[in-house]
Amino acid sequence: MQHARKIGEPILTVEGVSLAFGGVRALQNVSFDVREHEIRAIIGPNGAGKSSMLNVINGVYHPQDGKITFAGKVRQHVDPHEAAARGIARTFQSLALFKGMSVLDNIMTGRNLKMRANLLLQALRIGPALREEIEHRAAVERIIDFLEIQAYRKTPVGRLPYGLQKRVDLARALALEPRVLLLDEPMAGMNVEEKQDMCRFILDVNDQFGTTIVLIEHDMSVVMDISDRVVVLDYGRKIADGTPDAVRNDQAVIDAYLGVSH
Amino acid sequence: MLKKNWPVVALIALLVAGLVAPLATGASAVGFYVEVLLGGLMAGVLYSLVALGFVLIFKASGVFNFAQGAMVLFAALAVARMAEVMPWWLAAALAVVIMVILAWLIERLVLRPLVNQEAIALLMATLGVTYFLDGFGQTVWGSDIYEINLGIAKEPVMILDRLFQGGILVNKEDFVAAIAAAALVAGLALFFQKTPTGRALRAVADDHQAAQSIGIPLNRIWVIVWSVAGVVALVAGVIWGAKLGVQFSISQVALKALPVVILGGFTSVPGAIIGGLIIGVGEKMAEVFLGPVLVKAFDLAGGGIENWFAYMLALLFLLVRPEGLFGEKHIDRV
Question: Cystine design at B251: which of A112, A190, A222, B73 (Cβ 3.0–4.6 Å)?
Fold first, then answer.
């Protein structure tokens, strides 16, 4: 397979974003950018605003202040399904799979945006609708092979072990063929082996599909090995931004993680 | 398993016993028994249809749609009045369009402004929709009793008279209606299982947030679900209207779907179907066979069991199995 990885220009720029829930200021004047094809990590202690940041990019929350530029265009009010349509996919920290549905159906939902046939054709399964279904099924099969979940196609996801469910979540997001993939604590709650598998998949996705990845993680060690650049948040503010090595040795970051008396 | 579920098992055993008792005790001739059974199944299919409307909307939008009964009446009125100036099938086709527009309006004017509100606020909103539809339907279409004539003979036909003494009397219209309703239910089930839109509907039913994040627009799904519920209401309305005449009481009969969904489970499509059949058969059997027994034993005036049987059964199910036969069990974290 072609080596697609070549870090390019910024694809996503966040400038001066502030988000508050009532009196709680989840994000204060946060700015950073994400370059095309890179793996960008957002880390920070609990309550630092990592998930809020991801939810802002994904369109779940709408910041009171600030500017987000995606693929050269400044975004106005964007809802999650619009963000998805423009090429931003995500996974969830606490699994949000469609539990009653099979692995295959879960991943197929990720192709829904790309289906064009109208309801009537779909209902009758004729002509373009059938061709479309076959075409998308083939794409989904490639993802299933890629993530090595061939054996579980027809299993209802609710019955899979946790690590595999996380993989299905990733597969569903990949089915959108996103330009930017947001991963919300992809390794949370995993054992060492599962963590290694997930790291490998993240690197492979980035390497083979050239997908830009933004991941948030609470555990610093995992992230440092796979990220190109790291943003560190603490109490809703950005306290560091740079390569893993630079961030690791930053005094503000060490203080935030270990705690200091102010 | 059995030990823990004994009240449910006992209740089901009681129902089955009640079902076979008239035959086993020889209280009823076979032919008559089958007639009652068929009558119950036919009514049951209609309950299933209305219950299906409830379940679809509840799954997809988390709204308990009290207006389902009013939608049945509204659709039936529309068909009945329009059929006065055109063939009934054309009137029905136009009524489908009306129900889709109605679904779209409800999404725009009621659901969208109330998104993320408490469930009770949404329930109250559908109560409002109920009374609006009841009243508005009468304003537009009138408040008399109207007929829907499907052009199928209403007089009963004798079948299987070689097999049983006396044969079985069936109404051809009922028979066609039951088959049409069953076909609709089966078609919908296939649609949900096999098409991309059906997949999207199931996805929304499972997890709103995740569905949105993969690009499924909730608003569009809501319009589709309410439209489907509207069409289901239309079919139920036409069948009931043809049978009983289109009148206000249809909106009340349709509320029998409430005990049906309690019995089958609020989130289960198969539950709605089977629940409808159980209630339909159960209340007919109770009326015909249990009624006379009660009358004799307690010297009552008799009759009317059909009116309360469904609700009694639902109440019993609430006591022993609140999630219904096929519903998802709720486990709350404390």
Answer: B73
